[in-house]
Amino acid sequence: MKKYKIAAILMIIHGGFMEIGGCFAMIPALILGNDKFDVGQYFSFKLPYFQDNLYLMIIMGAIYGVVRVIGAAGLLKNKMWGLALSVINCIVTMALMMFLLPAGIMDGIFACTALILILTQYFGDKRIA
């Protein structure tokens, strides 16, 4: 159970502070508008499509953050749906992190660590046949 709790805390930090907190930090930029504050000046993605649609990426980050926190809450309550949602979220993050450089590096560190903790707790010392 201890590994599940550590994984859930990592996912709350990742989803709550990095994803949702990053979106809240962008509220002043949205209020001031593009002409006064260019988000792309301070934060960039390697793929031009993501860079051109940075505000949409911020909204997607908020959605991922909320889903990640919900999965972590289910994991903390020892619910199977929380386990499944957390594993799915970590796997999706692992698949997408390479397209979201440089931010994907931290996403990968948090998601991969959480996934390893979840899987080692779930499977324990079981051997393959």
Question: Notable features of this structure?
Answer:
129 residues; elongated; mainly alpha
How would you characterize the largest beta sheet?
Answer: none
The overall average pLDDT, rounded, is 84
Element order: H for helix, E for strand: HHHHHHH
What is the rounded Rg? 16 Å
Helix content: over 70%
* Molecular shape: elongated
pLDDT under 50 segments (min length 5)? none
Please work out how many helical segments DSSP would assign. 7
Helix and strand composition category: mainly alpha
Question: How much β-strand is present in the residues?
Answer: under 5%
Distance between the termini: 25 Å
- Number-wise, the strands total 0
Any overview of this molecule?
The protein has 129 residues and is mostly helical. The chain contains seven helices and no strands. Helix 1 runs antiparallel to helix 7 and helix 6 (80-96) packs antiparallel against helix 7 (103-123). The two termini are 25 Å apart.
Topology:
Blueprint: H1 2-25, H2 27-32, H3 39-42, H4 48-52, H5 54-76, H6 80-96, H7 103-123
Helix pairs in contact: 1-5, 1-7, 5-6, 6-7
Q: Could you write a compact summary of the structure shown?
A:
The protein is mainly alpha-helical and 129 residues long.
